Amino acid sequence: MGAESTHVTSPALRRVLGLDVGSKRIGIAISDPLGITAQGLETLQRQNKRLDFEKLSGLVRDYEVAEIVVGFPLRMSGEEGIQAEKMLRFAQELRERVGLPVHLWDERLTSAEANRLLRETEMSIKRRGQVVDQMAAVLILQSWMENRRMGRERGEEG
């Protein structure tokens, strides 16, 4: 058994794409092939539905993505509102277009946490504004992966 037996397209070694979807931008993060760490990719400036989904489909292909996590904007009470309904529709359309599992993950406070983390850096206010969506996507994806890993350690599925 040589190194070729651990091929990147093995289900255990496929990446997860994390998305923080807003009306103007989509923050994007990608996992490493083992699904342990998340790193930010360039934020997508939204144009129209067709172009946005084309760009996301290209990322799925380029990074050999196996599944996608989309931030789910619940109200602080935990109830679904208008934004949550929009994400349900977005996730369903993305699922249909790319043919992959799309998971919704509670994103409450991720933008606030991203802003807090970025304020601790010496980054300019302008630059922080440019990367906050990316950082939120990283936080969404990282927390989803950690939750899944903990579930597996406890012997749970999913």
Structural notes for this entry:
The chain has 158 residues and is of the alpha/beta class. It has a single domain (11-151), classed as YqgF/RNase H-like domain (Nucleotidyltransferase, domain 5). It has 4 helices and 5 strands; from the N terminus they run βββαβαβαα. It has helices at residues 49-62, 82-98, 110-119, 125-153; strands spanning 15-21, 25-31, 38-45, 65-72, 102-106. It has a 5-stranded mixed sheet with strand order 3-2-1-4-5. The longest helix is centred in the C-terminal third of the chain and has 29 residues, at 125-153. The chain is globular, with a radius of gyration of 16 Å. The two termini are 30 Å apart. The model is unreliable at 1-11 (pLDDT under 50).
How do the SSEs run, as a string of H and E? EEEHEHEHH
Estimate the helix proportion, in percent: 40-55%
Mean pLDDT: 86
Any idea how many domains?
1
For CATH, the homologous superfamily is named as YqgF/RNase H-like domain
CATH class: Alpha Beta
How much strand? 15-25%
- The total count of strands amounts to 5
Number of helices: 4
Could you tell me the CATH topology label: Nucleotidyltransferase, domain 5
CATH architecture heading: 2-Layer Sandwich
Q: Distance N terminus to C terminus?
A: 30 Å
Largest sheet: 5 strands, mixed
- SS-based class: alpha/beta
Strand ordering within the main sheet: 3-2-1-4-5
What is the CA-atom radius of gyration, in angstroms? 16 Å
